[in-house]
Amino acid sequence: MILRDSRGEYRVTIEQDGRVSIDGTIVAATVLAPGELRVGDTGHAWVCASGDARWVFLDGEVFEIEVQPEGRRRRAVSSHASLSAPMPATVVRVEVSAGTVVRHGDTLVVLEAMKMELPIRASVDGTVTAVHCKPGDLVQPGVALIDIA
Amino acid sequence: MMFRRLLIANRGEIAIRIARACREEGIESVAVYSEADRGAPHVRAADRAVFIGPAPATESYLSTSAIIDAARATACDAVHPGYGFLSENPAFARQCEQVGLTFVGPPADIIERMGSKIAARQLMISAGVPVVPGLTAVDQSDEGIAAAAGRVGFPVLVKASAGGGGKGMRVVRDHESARTLIPAARREAIASFGDGTLYVERLIERPRHVEVQVFGDTHGRIVHLFERECSIQRRHQKVIEESPSPALTPVVRDAMGAAALAAARAASYVNAGTIEFLLEGTGDAAHFYFLEMNTRLQVEHPVTEAVAGVDLVRAQFAVAAGGGLPWTQESLTRRGHAIECRVYAEDPADGFLPQAGPLLLYREPAGPGIRVDSGVVEGGSVSVHYDPLLAKLTAWGESRDAAIARAASALRAFPVLGILTNVPFLIRLLDHPEIRAGRMHTRFIEEHASELLTVPDPPLEALAAAALGGTAPHTGDGNSAPAAPDPWNTIRDWGRDR
Q1: A107/A4 Cα distance (integer angstroms)
Q2: What is the pLDDT at residue B168?
Q3: Residue A20: which of B467, B470, B477 has the nearest Cβ?
Q4: How far apart, in whole angstroms, are the C-alpha atoms of residue B344 and residue B363?
Q5: Domain containing residue B253
Q6: Which residues of chain B have pLDDT under 50?
């Protein structure tokens, strides 16, 4: 299988004896209990799956690692972006309109959820092509608020 | 007479904490729950549970009528409000008393007076307790607040009069930014407290936040249970609390204890409360100023319970039932050091944005000196409707170093997966040399953000774990069955010390 994180890709095979080969380097691993493993010499890890993602807790750090089964192609990366709410929220303010030139990190929309204001910031440089919300709207996660191209 | 049946007007970890105290005291407990909390751990922790309404807190946990109806329907004789929600709502406390329910907390008029930051300030000034220089504008328009800020002198802190927890609060450094920050503070104040009244204080740069636990009874006795240092905050909310404060010299500690008692006496305070101070400067020359009084049990009460060896919730019951305080000032002593870490569902790298979602894997640590107060379980989920606090980990040790080492080691064995939490961030805080040295202030996280937010690349061991990760007991896609553990692996671990 292929594992992917923010740095790159790793070719990983699970050996017959349960050891794991990562780009040719062998790491010992023993399942202690469901979701709990001994890894390497002294590492104690907890892991769980969520779709193609694996969540790993190791020595107080959390890693999200994507698993790609052999033979499946990666989705194309696009320079377009749609910004959506991370959770159900109310729109407090919309700071841009169609045609606004934005830079990565600019605040586009301010939401309120859990009694806190949450700024939604541009994830890319570009121009706003569409605004799909207005102040007072209740918005759901995953639904585009702003499109940037 | 002690209560027979008590309604817990709260949810999550604090509701469970109160239910446990009820059981120890022989009081029947009644939980309440919203649509989002069907089957939540706090519902199971109590002897009975009453459904009180839809998920939004305003229609359930903040609904005085729904809660009072639930208490009457189950023939309760007392209500414990916990913290947050209705705990500092004087109208709720008053209604409880009117229908014959004992409110486990101070009388309504004390909550009312101390809840108004403006009235509380006036009272403290008259009691000789030092306060931060500030102004409440008679002209409550945005321009009026901006003008008051100019008179106090920039930088200032604009705060909600009805506020708490940093909601409705903004640091304003000049007239220019005042134009956007004052309306933002007001919007948050209205959304959180239903009251947009603002006031302005001189900003003390890099203060410490040190608070004193006080406790009064209906027989006129008041004691303090020492201080808690709560300087490690993000978004003006506490993240780590400890006792004793590494900043207080014996001279300043005595002066602060005396000021807290004077403040509590001025308020004729009854039941558990906290006097919050800002501490400026170091050594015997440090100055402290009254910040506010919290007329409720605090989130961080386990810190005091650990060092003073007391049970604050059971003492609340005793006092609310008309009994005397279980301690005298002379009988109260401290032993060792305690530190509490608040585990939040949030993404520290994204401005501590609250996270909601499934707890695919959640395992609590245990061990000598470790206490975990939590309101969630593995396989449950974190709702968008409420505070993202998952658990409080409190570690006690003979010394500050021992308590911190225990806390850090316990957090390294506190895996929470499926949703981002601040566990790795808490460990980086506890490992930070400045915090180990006891040198912190309320802007510590902000000023050290880059070092605290540096996330390492996954080591090969993490990749190996990910490769074998399909065997988790709870999977997010809901259609892959959990793998049975290999019996050979289980046998191999017989007798293993872990």
Answers
A1: 30
A2: 85
A3: B467
A4: 15
A5: 207-331
A6: 471-498
CB contact under 8 A, A20 and B191: no
Per the CB < 8 A criterion, the answer to whether B226 and B308 are in contact is yes
Residue B275, token pair as written in the block: 């006097």
- Residue B476: the pLDDT is 42
For residue B353, list chain A residues with Cβ-Cβ distance below 8 A: 86, 118
Round to whole Å and give the CA distance between A104 and A110: 16
**Minimal Cα distance from A10: which residue of B?**
B463
Contacts of B358 (CB under 8 A, 6+ apart): A50, B379, B380, B381, B382, B418, B419, B474, B476
Written as six digits, the tokens of B397 are: 């040790």
d(CA B123, CA A141): 46
Q: What would you measure as the largest C-alpha separation in chain B, in angstroms?
A: 75
Rounded to whole angstroms, what are the CA distances from B412 to B14, B48, B381?
Answer: 24, 36, 22
Suggest the residue from B412, B461, B480 to mutate for an interface test with chain A (most A CBs closer than 10 A).
Answer: B461
Contact A112 B191 (CB under 8 A): yes
Please indicate whether, in this complex, the C-beta atoms of A22 and B460 are within 8 angstroms of each other.
yes
CB A60 within 8 A of CB B427: yes
Sequential DSSP letters for chain A: -EEE-SS-EEEEEE-TTS-EEETTEEE-EEEEETTEEEETTTEEEEEEEETTEEEEEETTEEEEEEEE-TTPPPPPP-S-EEEEBSSSEEEEEE---TT-EE-TT-EEEEEEETTEEEEEE-SSSEEEEEE---TT-EE-BTSEEEEE-
Based on the fold, state whether residues B400 and B309 are members of the same structural domain.
no
**Does residue B250 share a domain with residue B177?**
no
| pTM score of the predicted model | 0.83
Report the distance separating Cα A71 and Cα B59, nearest Å. Answer: 51
Per-residue DSSP letter, B86 = T
Q: Contact at 8 Å (CB) between B200 and B134?
A: yes
B492 neighbourhood in chain A, CB within 8 Å: 30
The residue assigned the tokens 């380097």 is A25
The shortest C-alpha distance from A81 to chain B (Å) reads 18
A56 is written with which tokens? 């790993």
Give the closest-approach CA distance of A127 to chain B in angstroms. 23
**pLDDT for res B470:** 65
- In CATH, which of 1.10.760.10, 1.10.3660.10, 2.40.50.100, 3.40.50.1000 is domain A81-148? 2.40.50.100
Q: Under DSSP, is residue B135 helix (H, G, I), strand (E, B) or coil?
A: strand
B296 part of the active site: yes
The residues with which A113 forms a beta bridge, in sequence order, are: A116
Do residues B140 and B90 both lie within one domain? no
User: What is the ipTM, given to two decimal places?
Assistant: 0.85
Test B493 with A34 for CB contact under 8 angstroms. Answer: no
